[in-house]
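Structure tokens please, single chain.
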Amino acid sequence: MNWDIVEGKWNQVKGSIKEKWGELTDDDLTEIDGRKDQLSGKLQEKYGWTKEETERRLDDFARERA
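Here you go.
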């Protein structure tokens, strides 16, 4: 699944994202609204990952949802 599909199904995948990355709040997910760059920034902020690590994890997540 590419990120456009994740973004389009945001309300359906929010639960999976919150389950996988429990540090994200409902407010965070509402603010992110499916935008990969916003999610990436929040994950970097909450978990201290590098941009490259975050992008890899997001790409893995999108592939898992395919």
